[in-house]
UniProtKB/TrEMBL annotation:
Bias (Polar residues) ranges: 82-91
Record protein name field: GH16 domain-containing protein
Domain GH16: 90-342
Transmembrane segments: none
A GO BP annotation: carbohydrate metabolic process
Stretch list, region Disordered: 33-91
InterPro entries on file: Beta-glucanase-like, ConA-like_dom_sf, Glycosyl_Hydrlase_16
SUPFAM superfamilies named among the record's database cross-references: Concanavalin A-like lectins/glucanases
Biased composition range(s): Low complexity: 37-65
Any Pfam family matching the protein: GH16_XgeA
GO function term, MF aspect, one: hydrolase activity, hydrolyzing O-glycosyl compounds
PANTHER family referenced in this protein's UniProt entry, alphabetically: GH16 DOMAIN-CONTAINING PROTEIN (PTHR10963:SF53), GLYCOSYL HYDROLASE-RELATED (PTHR10963)
Amino acid sequence: MPLRDHFNQLKAKAEELNRKHNLLPIGQNSAHQTYVPQGHQGYPGQQPQYQGQWQPQWQPQGPQPNHYDRPPAAPPVPLHSRPSQSGASPEYQQYPQVYWRMNPQAAVSVDFEQKQGHGDPYGWGNDELENYTSHSENSFYTADGKLIVRAISRPGHPDPEARFTSARLVTRQTLAQTRGCLTAWLTLPRAEGIWPAFWMLPREPFEWPHEGEVDIAESWNGEIDNHSCLHWGSYVREDLQKHLVRKTPLPDATHRPVRFDFVWNCENIPYRNDGKSAGGGRLMWCIDGRSIMKNLMPAGTRPIQDWCVLLNVAMGGTVCKGKTPPEGIYDMVVHGLQMSDGMEGGWGRFEHEWQNCPDGIVTY
């Protein structure tokens, strides 16, 4: 067979496979993919009021995740690993049961409270630039089931409230259980003046910082290091030991879904007379299936089952050292978000990982 005919046959087979599996056409990639809300063209409900020279200048660098890069579905739980009829959880459950996950078929507001406003009066502080909105240009689901948390920098906009907009989403669902695992698959934006975060706070109302804060994924100013943190004190010299951190280099976090797990086991932890934790529950942070930090839940924090999950992209402020993000669009892509009753590999794996995982350290 002539070489050209053989090549054409191979190309035809490849195109047939692409059509069958709904992949990108041959020779194309999604390096400059722009996510658009379902049924959304431009600004919600109207034409953009700003008609200046601004056009989004930022584009993702390198290959971006395609629509088939979904989080893997959890395999069925084997019979021998399922809870007993008495309701007791097995100690070595290999495949945990998911008890909550975000629902891309519903509006964002169903699973998340979309915080609005900006600045210190709202308790978000740090002299940040962003105005958090509930607009569909700042948070939306894509047609293929991803949640987009979008920060938009347009410093030339005539309306000061529209120059830096973003989304701050808080789950309506709490962790709810005394032990379990929170998992997210995230592709994160990176640039000067940009601060994406996947973190947790107690359900409102709460007393910050004494009732605690957990940071699972965050970086700022284009740094490649991810910060895993546990906070329960103010930023004063006396409270330095109440800020524990581990840094993990993630140079490719803008190009692929990174898996973040936060695992907690706070069973049989006593409460104080004021309802706060007496301390001692075990917390573990994992990235791409590798445990990278552990710590005990401090005394005086809120019981873990009362905590909520936050997703946001902040801009500027003291944490970003006053840097302003360049004009453009910055997307945190949430490929999946769920809560399970344990980590993959079961609580036996958790015990093993606990023995070898480093504690957080004071870095401030």
